Amino acid sequence: MKLCKKDGGVFVVDIVKEWFSAKKIAITNVGKIVSGDINKGVIEEADTIFIENGKITYVGHESGIDLKDAEIIVDANGMVAIPGLIDCHTHLALENYAPMNGIVNCLEEALMHGVTTIISEGEQGHGLPRFYPWDPKGVKVTAILAKKIFENYRPGGVQKVFGGALVLSEGLTEDDFKELSEEGIWLIAEIGGGGLADVSKVLPMLEWARKYNFFVSVHWGPGIIPGSRLFSVDEVLSMKPDKIAHVNGGTTAAPWEDTKEIIDKLDSGIEIVPYGNPRMIVKVLKYAREKNILDRVIFGSDTPTGQGYLPNALHRAIVTASSLAEIPAEKVIAMATGNTARLYNKYGYRINSGFIEVGKDADIVLIDKPQGSVGEDALEAIEIGDTFGLALIITSGKIVGLRGKDTRPTERSIRINGTEIRVTDINELLFEPIKLYYRSLDLG
User: How far apart are CA 268 and CA 175, in angstroms?
Assistant: First the structure.
């Protein structure tokens, strides 16, 4: 391993290459492994995860596996392992600059916050049809272009982005849906969030969408931007969406009785966004627990917008939901992982993450309680309302980072191949999440 000095510290060159290219990684001494399955919760009798060629190949006791072939051994030091987070509600841009976001920095920073999968609710940009007059050709071209962009571009080298959500436009035909399906498009951007919102014209399109296995999302709550609107309960019921987008408002919530009726009469996914109405978050979660339908609840960021916050949006959703609605942290984490994967795989197997189990993509995040929390571990910290810290992000079996900018420092430190990974420099904490702690490591 070659090292070179820089700025009075140790700049790790080959470590980055070695960590990123390792085919076999063992994570040992894990305090708790959260399965991502809301019914299973924490995996009992397990403290070790083995990764090979991007997949999870073992979950169990360290004594049950020979680690001699592991290129990287991560000592989790009692931290909690969770599946990589899945953000199911983003509005991506096709350009590097758009009024709401700079796409590259935004997504890579989300990755450094443990968000390993992103799902689009419709792309946007200057003159594109999400905010401006739309037409069938425009929405088709936008969806296909976004799909192709994110098929070939993975932020941070590994983040999985399902781009190319079709914004409905008057004039689309069944042939258009067939063509788009053949191009790999399978998402309908949230209806009522922008684009065609006349339900009488939308319903025939939804018949075509379902014929070709599109996933349908419907905006719920008052309109926010030009072109968005509040549907009536009957209108939402007639569309039978697969997901009720931002059920707690994005940002303004609809009346509770209307929201409750929709939850009762549909079997749709129930999406919560952290920047929406917080009182409605608690109402929805307590009602879902009472009705035994917590497996329908999922989290999205609905970002980047001026109201939202993409990098740590799912952190906020997890902490808010668990602490205020008094739901065990491992169940709430499932709402940002396994629940989402199951829902979006409804019409075809597309997402192979969201769970820590053999055969799944190795999207794994190590988290710990923040410094000073009275919780015993990350799960207890979440349940009392403390924001957890990150110590390691693995996506598709690759170590891609240790934390994001200005994320909470963890109480404990991990070791990678025997070297302790600890932040000791304030600039490193605030500005340099991908440099792998070169100022802090004393490597020679």
Answer: 27
